[in-house]
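Researcher: Batch entry, complex prediction.
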Amino acid sequence: MKLTRRDFATGIAAGIAAPYLIKSAKAQAATLKIGMCAPVTGPAAESGGYAIKGARLALEAVNKAGGILGKQGELIVEDDQTTNPGIVLAFSKLASQPDIVGFLGSIRSTQVHAMAPDVIKLGKPVMIGGTDPNLTHMGNQWLFRCRPNDSYSGRVIAEFGVNTLGKKKWAVLHSTDAFGTAGGKALSGALEKLGAPSVLDQGYANQSQDFTPVVLAIKQSGADILGSYFTFENDLGIFARQLRQLGVNIPWVGSPSITNVTALKLAGPALYNTYGVADYAEDSSEGSKAFGKIYRDAVKVAPDNQSSWTFDAINVLSAAINKAGSTDPGKIREAILATRKFAGAEGEYNFDQNGDGLHGYNVVKNEKGNIVFDKHIEFND
Amino acid sequence: MDLALQLLFTGIGIGAVYALVALGFVLIFRATNVVNFAQGEFSMVAAYLMVVAVEAGLPYWAAFIVALLGMALLGVVFNLGVYYPLRHRTYLPVIIATIGASILMANSVLAIYGPQPQVLEGWFETPGIQVGPVYLDSQYLLIIGVTICLVIFNFWFFEKTLLGKKLQATSQDKEMASLLGISVSTMIMITFIYSAVLGGLAGILVAPVLFVSIQMGSTIALKAFAATIIGGFGDVAGAIIGGLALGVIETFGAAYISVPYKDGFAFLVLIAFLIFRPQGIFGERVAEKA
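Model: Structure tokens for the complex:
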């Protein structure tokens, strides 16, 4: 047999490439990839860091328990820059990798709206934390929510304020983005049903530097209680300080951002004695306590909903893939929707046909900077 | 009336911050004929320097001095690294370089210090005082006071001192200044240092109110830039009046017309000026200047 120059070159090339090809094939077979869009940069970069840590902690536990379909789970994170174009770009980068079987989207509704058309085109499950009720009611069968939506938060804020605190003259303050608008609408709707329509419905633009006109409007409205939907913690911090400085001390029940670690740090005593609805409250269930311990041990800060929802999202998604016994998107979808009585950090998951996993909220109180669980209100309708 | 007084105070307070940053824009524009789009980042960097110095255990006043010295150094580096190599080019490459520098500064702080917004306590233990129906935030009082002092200082410095006159001469006609023996490059260096310190001062003063974050500089700078145009680009008094006017207009607009469109009022005024009086309040028409 005569060895030609071409045979020799082919042999050498194959020899060099073979280890890499084998290693790559091995790596592909060894892991099962989950994509995650998270704000690594931009205004929400801090909370994005918490979200990534929550997801990684869940995946570590899943991997220790045997992994997903017998393989180790691998998290691929893309920076969404805390912007809508950023998340569209991040998701398209992840979607172009065919071996990613499921995704984690954003906690911000406006970003989920931005990426939603691409989610439909891709046809793979995306776990989300955005709480605009419309997200799971607009015909997108691939969005699965791991937090209770704002129709529940609005109802819980209203019910707690009206029935527990006995207040009927409400000022409703909300961001004008998708999350804030939907939240404000849900709260106003719930208040009307309880016979306590708001005396002030006030929107504000994100990243405001001064809330004096808003505080004065609340003061002039004669409201005896405030309900709020803030998107960014620095807005909440500035508002809280100005509210107290200008002498408004009415009870305040806020959406989950009022209990965030960042908000507590920025606003400090200005948030003392406020109430919040929180999808995550450490003392609300055994699952919440367990997550709290894992998170505190690993990250050394108090856990909040930024990390708890991603922790649950990974766990729900992994369990659904294992239950489906396949990476086929349709089978994973069916398995997620069939999830019942799944104990998560945020509560007990019972997915409905819209893709909503949770149907109630916890009410918590800020007692000198400590978030204390008050009660859980669950809805069955 | 009570409402109007409260709004007026807050509007002047926030306007004073715009004015301080706008002043930095104007000084550099006068000296170099280019707009420094990194002026807002000077505020952000100074606020972070202040946080670092306070966290390192320095007394507040010492941290303040350290932060301002840091800004003076940044002014030198900025001049040598961004402006000086491009000084013989047209204004466009310099402007693009300042935008690039602002991105570099923001991302450097992000990489070094992380994305967490920080709390910087104010100078005073008392957050504010109640005077009749109006609550006077102590930090805003300080900002307004510093702005007034700077107006007086600028007048004295530019009109009464030799160095100030040299800086004015450089900004008006570099060639003539050079022929008269003034070191143009030194004057431009001094201008950059002064602008960086001014921007830094604004950042340190406003940090207790707005918190210290990567975005704080760009948010302020956008309004300060609008204030500079409204006041008349290149005019020191214009920058002050433009900044104060913008703060008051947006605060009153938000209170009496619409809160969500607060930023819109500022830019509506800007557009109106660009259409009807592009030279701003104190600016001269180009033909008149000649």
